[in-house]
Amino acid sequence: MVVRICKDTQAMGKAAAALFVALATEKPNAVFGLATGSTPVPTYSEMAAAYQAGAVDYSGITTFNLDEYVGLAPDHPQSYRYFMETNLFKHINIPTENTHVLSGLATDPEAECAAYEAMIDAAGGIDLQILGIGNNGHIAFNEPAADFAAVTHTVQLTESTIEANKRFFDSVDDVPRSAYTMGIGSIMKAKKIVLLANGAAKADAIKAMVEGPVTPECPASILQFHPDCVVLVDEAAASKLSK
Ligand code: GLP
Questions:
Q1: Rg (Cα) of the chain, in Å, rounded?
Q2: Residues 68, 117, 127, 143: which is the catalytic one?
Q3: 243 pLDDT exceeds 90?
Q4: Across residues 91-106, what is the average pLDDT?
Q5: How far apart are CA 155 and CA 177, in angstroms?
Q6: Which of 126, 149, 186, 224 has the fewest CB atoms within 10 Å, i.e. the most exposed one?
Q7: Residue 59: its pLDDT value, please?
């Protein structure tokens, strides 16, 4: 695990976007693993800016998103499909059929999760996965006490995550209580991972992830065992690191 401290969120976004742009140039049919949350938004703006400047072509890229809320339709403004459309897909030349987000309306959750995992494998696996991190150390929606071997599955969200994510909804009661998520096992299969975190609220999670024991209580700590994981943080998120 390599940790780099960036000047601010814009610099983090530029550094992460540069990895995706370089990969798309080197491997035009690469598979991107994408994440939601506020943290990757500057990365997606930079990726779109690179396309608009004519510096990159995403027409052969395939994407898989990490997770989706159970019960939200793709056009629900808080669904992760909607997030991806508005923050990235509609600004670049990726064909819609190449973009994959779990369906919040799946009638057979187990089949949906199994088919999703199979699709990732059939695409050759994820070349570059972007991750944020929850205040409690979750990645995607793999909450503390996560099973490190799990593949795509349904999870119940913790109170901490519901609290943290309520800012996007009209009220806390509107936040879905469950979600579909790629498992830690799915994420660890990605060939390269870039995890981003900014702000003091993430400092404890970053310390536990980087310097703490590898434990399901901090799901992100498993990344210490990933062979190619880059962590980009701002000074506030890095403030509790001792080294
Ligand atoms: C959600 C997402 C995670 C994301 C986390 C942090 O729980 N499922 O993938 O990392 O939020 O979000 P933010 O970047 O807004 O802090």
A1: 17
A2: 143
A3: no
A4: 98
A5: 9
A6: 149
A7: 98
Residues with CB under 6 A from ligand 1: 35-39, 66-67, 132-134, 140-141, 161, 165
| Catalytic member of 136, 142, 165, 198 | 136
> Cα 129 from chain centroid?
7
pLDDT value of residue 216: 97
Integer Cα distance of 239 and 204 in angstroms: 9
Rounded (10°) angle between helices 9-26 and 41-52: 50
Residue entry with tokens 């000074």: 235
Domain regions of the chain by residue span: 2-231
Cα-Cα end-to-end distance for the chain: 13
**Band of the pLDDT at 36, cuts 50, 70, 90?**
very high
